[in-house]
């Protein structure tokens, strides 16, 4: 590994708090899979995601597996139920990462053989790994609902620090032969087998860590001036030949992260509105499209362009996800470059105004509460509370994509981790948040992120999550239980408070009543939790006790992290411990 690659690797590992004690080759797996997969999903990859994707050392032929539905990662077969009422797109991603400076024909063949075996009716390779089995179960569950699959894409990435030969190599023959085996399954809509060399990997990594940036011409526009907190604003029409520079990257692929802050995912062509838009374009009724379409709203942090040329940085499409995706799918229709698209561009750093724009521009759409929870009044209040405590604990709450670009990831709690840790600690559902966050959102949507809630219990759960991350970074004996982290969080709260949680105490008006007896005094439970969390020895002592009690349940059984009975058994063990102490 040369000094340039090692510098990128060290910077990545530092920012994502990757264990320094891991071998260089293992850390390189994190680096490589993050760099490639960031381009393929519609969300931000975090360390916990990567740990679920990367397989244990010694897994035959494969270093990592991921599955996405509609570009969103899933880690458990039960999550498929969240999509059962629609037709959806699935992508399988397989990774083999080598730190060597060459591409081995034999190893590429072995990698693809393992993938062939994965999809086989009667696998020859008996790979006994829980992580591998979880993805195998996802595949089998998908086969049961195959009629719901709109398309299935397979991506196979073999990564090496060598330089890829252009053509006419024995590896090309190997790939061709293995592809023919995969095609015989008649399961995949598209099969992509790619050799990633050092140059491609570094290019993908730079793209993964950089804010979105695009330059395009916006000639048919008028400027809107004099609006408080808005640096620039334009409204007008832009040709598709220019608009596609906002949604398509240099490799001619759709920029999936562009829609992270949109309220709705792409609904596909089963949706009648999208089907009508598509037919309008296919019938080349371009003028009709321009008149009937509601348009697209783009919000960016800055514009360094001048005149009719805009150079947007860290931008998102916050309204117009459906239109943008249909245009992308229809991009090869003859003459489509001349289509005029209604476009609104807003340059602002004001978070409150940004949220208001998102809600207002989506007012004609029907969206669910869970799609709105990221931009509610409570979210802003929670962010402010984190900021008020940063001089004490040094952590931040990131309620939108790339909000804190220059802050180490180890100091950031995102919405997904906030929700998981909070629901595990205070609602006793660690098995649900470990396996099916979509189910949690649907079942408990009226229980979290409510306007009258105090931010304190949320902050406590976020702080515990960061304290846990610090421990698994510094002490290897905690890593075994990382997949059960949310059970341990629940146990931690019980051990500190010694009482069941009452949802009434989430309300601002009731937080002072939430108290425990200690040495004949009443101590506010939230204050007690914060006091313990800010004492490293006390944090460690309570987490150690929580783990020791957890060891008394059968946590080695398959899918234990997702088991409701395991959670109940663990609670009984905790209560037994508390009654004796």
Shape: globular
In what order do the strands lie side by side in the largest sheet?
A: 6-10-9-11-8-7
How far apart are the first and last residues' alpha carbons, in Å? 54 Å
Work out the number of β strands.
15
DSSP helical segment count: 22
* Low-pLDDT segments, ≥5 res: 364-371
- What's the number of structural domains? 3
The main pleated sheet reads as: 6 strands, mixed
- Class from secondary-structure proportions: alpha/beta
What is the CA-based Rg, rounded? 25 Å
Strand content: 15-25%
Question: Residue-averaged pLDDT, rounded?
Answer: 86
Q: What is the helical fraction, as a range of percent?
A: 40-55%
Name a few traits of the molecule:
alpha/beta; 6-stranded mixed beta sheet; 22 helices; 15 strands; 16% strand
Report on this model:
With 581 residues, the chain is α/β, with parallel strands linked by helices. It folds into three domains: 3-209, no CATH class; 213-367, no CATH class; 373-580, no CATH class. The protein is built from 22 helices and 15 strands. It has helices at residues 3-15, 24-37, 47-53, 105-118, 130-144, 170-183, 198-209, 240-247, 272-282, 286-292, 321-329, 351-361, 369-372, 377-393, 415-427, 430-435, 437-444, 456-474, 485-497, 525-533, 536-550, 564-580; strands at residues 64-69, 72-74, 88-97, 149-159, 190-196, 213-217, 220-223, 232-239, 296-303, 309-319, 340-347, 396-398, 412-414, 515-518, 521-524. The strands form four sheets. It has a six-stranded mixed beta sheet. Strands 2-1-3-4-5 form a five-stranded mixed beta sheet. It has a two-stranded parallel sheet with strand order 12-13. The radius of gyration is 25 Å and the shape is globular. The model is unreliable at 364-371 (pLDDT under 50).
């Amino acid at each position: 590994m040369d000094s340039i690659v090692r510098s990128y690797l060290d910077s990545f590992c530092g920012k994502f708090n990757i264990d320094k004690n891991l071998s260089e080759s293992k850390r390189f797996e994190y680096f490589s899979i993050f760099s490639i997969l960031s381009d393929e999903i519609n969300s931000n990859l975090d360390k916990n995601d990567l740990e679920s994707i990367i397989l244990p050392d010694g897994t035959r032929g494969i270093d990592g597996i991921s599955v996405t539905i509609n570009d969103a990662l899933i880690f458990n077969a039960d999550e498929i139920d969240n999509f059962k009422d629609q037709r959806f797109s699935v992508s399988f991603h397989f990774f083999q990462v080598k730190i060597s400076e060459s591409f081995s024909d034999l190893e590429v063949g072995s990698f693809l053989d393992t993938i062939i075996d994965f999809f086989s009716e009667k696998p020859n390779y008996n790979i006994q790994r829980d992580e591998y089995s979880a993805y195998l179960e996802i595949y089998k569950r998908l086969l049961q609902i195959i009629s719901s699959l709109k398309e299935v894409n397979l991506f196979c990435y073999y990564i090496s620090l060598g330089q890829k030969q252009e053509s006419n190599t024995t590896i090309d023959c190997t790939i061709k032969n293995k592809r023919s085996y995969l095609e015989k399954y008649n399961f995949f809509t598209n099969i992509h087998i790619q050799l990633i060399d050092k140059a491609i990997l570094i290019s993908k990594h730079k793209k993964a860590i950089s804010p979105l940036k695009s330059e395009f011409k916006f000639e048919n526009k008028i400027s809107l001036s004099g609006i408080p907190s808005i640096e620039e604003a334009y409204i007008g029409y832009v040709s598709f030949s220019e608009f596609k520079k906002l949604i398509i990257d240099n490799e001619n692929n759709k920029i999936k992260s562009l829609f992270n802050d949109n309220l709705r995912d792409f609904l596909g062509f089963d949706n009648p509105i999208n089907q009508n838009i598509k037919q309008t374009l296919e019938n080349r009724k371009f003028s009709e499209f321009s008149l009937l379409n509601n348009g697209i709203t783009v919000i960016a942090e800055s514009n360094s362009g001048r005149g009719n040329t805009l150079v947007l940085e860290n931008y998102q499409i916050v309204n117009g996800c459906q239109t943008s995706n249909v245009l992308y799918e229809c991009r090869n229709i003859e003459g489509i470059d001349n289509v005029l698209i209604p476009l609104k561009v807003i340059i602002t750093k004001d978070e409150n105004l940004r949220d208001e724009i998102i809600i207002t521009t989506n007012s004609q759409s029907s969206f669910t509460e869970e799609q709105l929870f990221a931009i509610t009044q409570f979210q802003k209040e929670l962010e402010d509370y984190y900021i008020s405590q940063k001089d004490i604990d040094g952590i931040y709450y990131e309620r939108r994509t790339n909000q804190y670009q220059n802050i180490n990831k180890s100091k950031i709690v995102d919405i997904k981790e906030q929700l998981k840790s909070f629901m595990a600690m205070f609602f006793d559902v660690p098995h649900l948040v470990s396996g099916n966050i979509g189910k949690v959102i649907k079942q408990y949507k009226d229980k979290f992120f409510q306007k009258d809630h105090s931010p304190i219990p949320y902050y406590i759960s976020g702080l515990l999550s960061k304290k846990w991350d610090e421990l698994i970074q510094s002490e290897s004996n905690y890593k075994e239980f990382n997949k059960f982290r949310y059970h341990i969080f629940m146990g931690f709260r019980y051990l500190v408070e010694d009482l069941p949680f009452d949802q009434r105490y989430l309300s601002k008006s009731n937080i002072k009543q939430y108290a425990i007896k200690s040495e004949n005094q009443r101590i506010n439970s939230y204050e007690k939790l914060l006091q313990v969390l800010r004492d490293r020895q006390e944090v460690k002592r309570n987490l150690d006790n929580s783990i020791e009690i957890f060891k008394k349940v059968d946590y080695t059984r398959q899918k234990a992290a997702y088991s409701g009975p395991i959670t109940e058994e663990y609670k009984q063990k905790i209560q037994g411990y508390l009654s004796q102490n």
